[in-house]
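Sanity check. The docking grid for LLP depends on where the pocket ends up, so I'm generating a full predicted complex first rather than guessing from homology. Inputs follow.
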Amino acid sequence: MHHFHFQNGQLYAEEVPVKEIARKVGTPFYLYSAATLKRHFQVFDQAFSSLPHLVCYSVKANSNLAVLRLLAREGSGADIVSGGELYRALKAGIPAEKVVFSGVGKTAREMRQALEAGILMFNVESLGELKVLSRVARSMRKKAPVAIRINPDVDPKTHPYISTGLQKNKFGLDLETALEAYLLAQKDPHLEIVGIDCHIGSQLTEVSPFVEALRRVKAFLQKLKSFGISVRYLDLGGGLGIVYGNEAPPPPEEYARALIEELKDLDVTLVLEPGRVLVGNAGILVTRVLYYKETPQKKFIIVDAGMNDLLRPAFYNAYHEIIPVVSRKRPLIKADVVGPICETGDFLARDREIPQVKPGELLAVMSAGAYGFVMSSNYNSRPRPPEVLVSRDQYFVVRKRENYARLIAGEKIPDFLR
Ligand code: LLP
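Predicted complex below; grid placement will be based on this.
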């Protein structure tokens, strides 16, 4: 459910015509709906209301400060994976005690920042990391709150690039090593065991892999108990999928019901790290058609947004629905929708049935709120697009379009080349 809808043949974001915003801010641009973000958070959070729980929004999915602030106001915590994300989360007003820190490559410096801030827990992913965390905590005369991220070896049945809970993935620890980590942490005066963590992948469209992972975590908790180890927090990560095309992911209520059923007999606070499900369908990318081109083999709609703006199609062959912002009767054609980047992989859609739009027309690339702007780059020296947030009948540029000065900011021609 989202607040992008047609009214008199025109695409609106809440109460604002998308065309209007394009006229003012230019194209391409990302557009988010505040009402959708709010609703998604509330539906997700309420689904777990019968259980002690904490929703830690996965900042990597969309880390714009305004988005973070909106979610903070709804009561969200944050799942972070870098010092930069910690900085953003705190700036946006997410309390440190609602922040969990995941990721396989935390540096000592990032650990220090997080300990200083007083985060809820570190989701530790290796023995080496555990050692460094203990050293950092000792140097600060603190005790670091830890959870060990276990790799339950469950197949999430999603794209291989975004599956993380298989033994061949770099994430988490196998059960044997995880036990070793817990036993080391147990006797370490600078570490405090507070939780257990697991995240098996992203864009999951079935509940069963989550349940399977949770069962394995539960069995492992039993084992920990026999060593006198207990936890307060059980972090099940993120990963719930959304509709891009013809997927049918379970709604949050169904996902929650299945997890709650498994958790009845446990005395823990459930931590969740949803990303995509909160922001994915709350955002679109608006782009303008530059040219139409036909080769003997193919038709191309060339638009002003490229893989540097939205990487998902090029990177994962991901499907995003693309619709004209102004709908009118026109023939359907089969075409590639491509960007201006000098790469064959620079496409937003391939062999897509799409209305025959003309140069100058606007297209909306749907479901682009998650892993959209955050994965954008300056490749081909293209300034990154602005991000705009709509709330009812108003819109706000929440990140301005980059300019050429910004493109080269920080670069320097050394003296010997002067
Ligand atoms: N927690 C951890 C530890 C994660 O690694 C992730 C995502 C999440 C939570 C949030 O997952 P979500 O609820 O959004 O599925 N760039 C890819 C997705 C990469 C996901 C990385 N980790 C894409 O565009 O599909």
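Relevant for the grid: The domain at 4-32+280-407 is CATH 2.40.37.10 (Lyase, Ornithine Decarboxylase; Chain A, domain 1).
Also worth noting: Residues 121 and 400 are 34 Å apart (CA to CA).
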